[in-house]
Amino acid sequence: MHSLSAPRQVAVFGATGSVGASALDVIARHPDRYRVSVLAAGRQVQALVALCLAHRPAHAVIADPALYGALRDGLREAGLDTQPHAGAAALDELAASAACDTLVAAIVGAAGLSSTLAAAAAGKRILLANKESLVLAGELLMRQASLGGAEIIPIDSEHSAIFQCLRSCDASFDGAGVRRILLTASGGPFRGRSRAQLEQVTPAQAVAHPKWSMGPKISVDSATLMNKGLEVIEAHHLFGLPGERIEVLVHPQSLVHSLVEFVDGSTLAQLGLPDMRTTLAVGLGWPQRIDAGVAGLDLLAQGRLDFEPPDRDAFPCLGLAWQAMAAGGTAPAILNAANEVAVSAFLQGQIAFLAIPALVANALSTLSVDSADTLEVLLTADQRARQLTQDAIDHA
Ligand code: NAD
Ligand code: MG
Hints:
Helix 2 links the parallel strand 2 and strand 3. The chain is 45% helix and 15% strand. The longest helix is centred in the C-terminal third of the chain and has 20 residues, at 375-394. It contains 16 helices and eleven strands. By secondary structure, the protein is α/β, with parallel strands linked by helices. It folds into two domains: 8-154, NAD(P)-binding Rossmann-like Domain (Rossmann fold), CATH 3.40.50.720; 155-275 and 294-316, no CATH class. It starts with 7 loop residues before the first strand and ends with a helix. Helix 9 crosses helix 14 (331-347) and helix 13 packs antiparallel against helix 14. The structure holds nicotinamide-adenine-dinucleotide and magnesium ion (MG). The site of magnesium ion has 4 residues, from helix 7.
């Protein structure tokens, strides 16, 4: 039935990244249902032009304004009539425009907030991978989406799992029938190590995730467990549950993507191979199921499912995220900004692995927490935390 209607027009922001590639893979399997109408990237002009050749969008955006000429020339040389754009304002405009009805929000970091808010206000279907926007401005974004009539479908595997489990009943989002949600965590590449054993770890070791293939920033976040901390805050906003009813369970096989326990004693889980194409297919097709190119789960071949508690001493980032969520207001924005700056410095070899939690803790204890009523307040907190953290790195 669906194939008789016009295909959905999909904008993929963060197209040159890991989630972007998975989204484009699923979309290309269903040319009758989805068309790529906008592709956007941060700075990778060549890769963006190559994706435009493959997917023929009407618009392409490069976020760095200095690269506009390179994008325009690259598209022309490729013989494409894709319209070139540059800058953050172009991202916001296209996210809200008639050029798309669906946005895959897969920019990494707080840079993804503005265009996601624009799509929310314009009532789009948002496939939300960019968790940092929820951590930075969760209340604002959820409110904007509800006012604009937007539909937010989580792409993070844990939140997609919870989203799917919650759809099994009418307890849905006021949380009445839900006792708690359990977010699973792989434990990252350093699971089982003590704090002392984490002192010398390198960026190359940190980004070598045992189960998921992901961009560098989220890979480091997985190694520090900050990723799980950000996800707890993300879950709080998406599903409207207080922190006490969100728990974290380490599950090294990464096959159970998360669980929901209901008041009647039922626990539902969603399982599958660790492949983001599944969650993107859920987001694109919902409430229908579409092929994602992902094989089913062979539990006999996998053999076992293990669970253990997270080690909060070796991985203090998880506790820092709980602390920021409990403090509320601008605290999660401070946590997120300090973490982005620290992770970037770690990836560039400027600081040690254990300096990441230390810098985040420093920002949280130094900066005052304000109530997060407006975007301006949140963005000011974000900027202050970036500055403070950068100064701490420069003067170390
Ligand atoms: P990535 O580093 O592979 O890709 C990031 C993309 O964002 C690239 O296309 C890059 O060009 C673009 N970008 C960077 N800065 C930008 C800017 N200022 N303006 C516009 N575009 C910019 O990252 P990823 O692993 O694909 O992750 C993307 C987001 O999805 C992150 O928020 C991450 O936490 C989330 N996520 C990723 C996965 C995964 O499996 N990779 C899983 C769950 C959630
Ligand atoms: Mg996740």
